[in-house]
Structures are given as structure tokens and as C-alpha cells.
Design brief:
alpha+beta; 4-stranded antiparallel β-sheet
Amino acid sequence: MDHIYYRELKNYKYQLMQDFEIQIDILPQTDLVYPYFALHTNGLLFIKKAYAWDGPSGPSRDTPDFMRASLVHDALYQLMQQKALDYKVHRKRADEILRELCRQDGMSAFRAGYVYWVVRWFGEGYARPMDEFKVIVHRVPR
């Protein structure tokens, strides 16, 4: 198991305290480089120290066997939100990677399967590109 070093935050649940990298089989055509993470053409996902993420979502518990998977999954979903990865093409594989990492880190097959199906059923809205959401403008009185 690879290690991740993180701390809990008040405003956002977790923050990475050391750089983290993992080899995955999502291979973009060009290097996708953003301020806190990058996915290279060879499938190396690099997440920089200070990256913040919300850990496992929904009714799930934040347990050690879920933290690395949630970190990787959140970064992949952010790449989809940024249109760097097409969510219609890559979302299923990102969800499968989540399940695989949970199993590698000791999660039971039953719970990992449950986690997988929950993100399959309810996760699409979190993977959609950000510009698909309605922008709300509120005029503040002076």
C-alpha cells in the first residue's frame, strides 16, 4: 500500500501533507497539468502537497481503507469537471479505480461494491463539467 499523509481541516475535510503519485490506466492524449495535480500521458497521477479534498462522500464513514481511494477519485472527478477528461468516457473507469483502491487498502468486497454502486448511481453530477451548472448571480445592495 502506498502511504498518504494528510491532516484534517476546518473548512475542507482533508489536506495532503506530502506529494502523492499513483500509476493508473487512464492515459490522456497530453499531460493534464493543474496547480494541485497532474495526469500524465503515461498514466502517472501526481497530486501535490496542500491539495484539499472532502474524503469519502455520502453516507459513508471516513475510514483508513477509503482515504487513498477518495483522494484519487476526487482528483479524477476534478479533471472531468475541468473538461480535461471526458466524463462520459472516463467516469466509469474512475469509479472502478475507486473500488480497486478500496479493496487494495483492506476494505471488504461487500463494502467496496456498495461504494462503487453508490458513486455509479449518484456521482454523475459531480463529474460533469463545471460550465454545465447554472451560475447564480446575486446583486448585493450598496
